[in-house]
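Hi all, long-time lurker, first post. I run a small reading group and we've been trying to get comfortable going from sequence to structure in the token notation. Rather than ask abstract questions, I figured I'd post a concrete chain and ask someone more experienced to write out its structure so we can walk through it together at our next meeting. Sequence below, copied exactly:
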Amino acid sequence: MLPPQAGLRLLIAMIALVGLFFALYPPLLNWETVFGFKFFVLNAIISYWVFRFAQSLIRTHQSAQALSNARFRAAAQGNLDPFMILHWDPTHTPATFVVAEANQSSVQFLRRPLENILGQRFVDLLPEPARASTEDFLKTRLGLPDPIDGEQSGLEIHGQRRRLRYQVIPLSATELAVAVQDITLLREVQEHEMQLALAEQRVSILNSLITKLSHEFRTPLTIIGTDRAPPGKRHQHRKTPTALRHPAKANSTAGQAAGGRHHPHPARDTQPG
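-- Answer (accepted) --
Happy to help. Here is the structure in token form:
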């Protein structure tokens, strides 16, 4: 089977030969054949330049893709998260993804030496429940232009339930890269913060209700989470009569108002001899 570029070249050559035949064969030299010859020649010229333009675009895209892949692989070597480059091997029985490259974080994550990772079937490195679904998913990503992110929870890795974030990056029609990040602790912290935020929201609602009740019934109530009362309690304290707040001062003032004589201290009024 001819490759697409060779087939396109052959088609252009056949069109050119047909045009040349109509141009050189005398019995066919009439207006129809002249018009047909011009049409074929014009078609051949357009096809040729379309082919050259498409070929230029293909080469530019391939160069950019190769450069992007090289940069990705160079950057991934310094990536702290586990990553692997997988190669689709149709000669394998059955056809499957084989690990072509892996960084040092993958060795630590899988707890296997590098030589026991490279060349292995990717599904053999996964937990049993996720093998079939993961390989089917990766097949659908081959050759696509855009990467995809996702999360997988409930995976049992080394006897512990883990939550993983992954990114699948297509590199070519037969290769893709998989980056993995363990976000178990991150999700636990986020869930704890969410629970704290909900608890604070409930306390805020209760405190708002307590403040309204304190103003409504003029009853001092303590705000939850503090040792202070709402503004209604302080307002009520200012309205309390002086006699209740300062009993001694109130008694002294009442005695003076009744006309009682203030007697000085006996020791000071006594004269000697």
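A couple of things your group might point at:
The chain has a mean pLDDT of 70.
The domain at 80-182 is CATH 3.30.450.20 (Beta-Lactamase).
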